[in-house]
Amino acid sequence: RFEDFVKENAVKKGTPNPAEAESLKEQALKRLEDLNSMTINETNASFRLESAYESVREAIQSFMAKEGYKPYSHEAIISYSLERKLLKEQEAYEMDRMRQTRNDINYRGIKIIVPEAIKAVSFANEIVNNLCKV
Q1: Which helix (H) or strand (E) segment is 70 a member of?
Q2: How far apart are the C-alpha atoms of 91 and 23, rounded to whole Å?
C-alpha cells in the first residue's frame, strides 16, 4: 500500500508542486524522444532499458509532485501508480520487473539483450504517451 511508504518515510508529503510536476512530465517526454531517436544494439541495450524505465518513472513522479509527494523509493512510485490507477495491474508488474532489471544492471553489471530493450522502449512509449496526455 502506498500509505505504508508514507508512514515509513519512504515518501514525504509536502506542498503540491505544479512546476516540478510539469518539469518531470517534460523531462519524461524529452527522454522518450531522445530514446526513440537511437538505435538499439548489443552494446547499448542495457542503457536503453534504463532510459525507458526512467522515462516512465518521471512521468509517474510528475503526478506525485502535483499532490505534494516526494518519493525516496522506486517501489513507492509503482505502488502509487497502481493505487491511483495510472497503471493497470499488468503494467505495474512490468514496471516493477523493469525496476528490478535496472537495479541488476546498475548494481550487478548484468547485460540486457536487444529484444528485452526493444520491449522496454515500446512499453515506455505506450505508458509515457498515455500519462502525459492527461
Answers
A1: strand 69-71
A2: 24
Distance CA 20, CA 62 (A): 7
Angle between helices 74-83 and 89-108 (to 10 degrees): 170
Say what the pTM is. Answer: 0.94
Q: Binning pLDDT at 50, 70 and 90, where does residue 133 land?
A: confident
| Biggest CA-to-CA distance, the chain | 43
C-alpha span between 85 and 87 (Å, rounded): 5
Task: Tell me which residue of 58, 65, 87 sits closest to 13, measured CA to CA.
Answer: 65
H or E segment to which residue 13 belongs: strand 11-13
Instruction: Give 75-121 pLDDT, tens digit per residue.
Output: 999 999 999 999 999 999 999 999 999 999 999 999 999 999 999 99
**Among candidate residues 130, 100, 116, 129, the one with its CA nearest the CA of residue 49:** 116
Report CA 78 to chain centroid distance, whole Å: 8
